[in-house]
Amino acid sequence: MLLWIHQHQEYIYIVILMIFLGIEIIGRVPSVLHTPLMSGANAIHGVVIIGAIIVMGKAESDNYLALILGFLAVILGTINVVGGFVVTDRMLEMFKKKK
Fold first, then answer.
1. CA 12, CA 52: separation in Å to the nearest integer?
2. Which of 52, 85, 94, 98 has the fewest CB neighbours in a 10 Å radius?
3. What pTM was computed for the model?
4. DSSP string of 32-96?
5. Which residue from 91, 89, 71 is spatially nearest to 81, judged by alpha carbons?
6. What's the average model confidence in pLDDT over 13-21?
7. Could you list the residue ranges that cross the membrane (predicted)?
């Protein structure tokens, strides 16, 4: 385990820096821009779902790890897309004029 961490130390640093950078960037986004950002995230997750389906289709039938991970990616990506659209729809309802 320690050897693996040492071999991938640069990647670990990059992931940690990306996490902090993402938190800083998203934390400074005005609330008016959250709806367009959510729509963009939904589009990205749609691409993830398509990629997972392609990977599952090209995986060998005895490669259970690839099939399970692909299935989980499809399920979690779909939940994220549907939830994102629900949140986006609710946020857009706030901007409609009330009767």
1. 24
2. 98
3. 0.59
4. GGHHHHHHHHHHHHHHHHHHHHHHHHHS-TT-HHHHHHHHHHHHHHHHHHHHHHHHHHHHHHHTS
5. 89
6. 92
7. 12-29, 41-59, 65-88
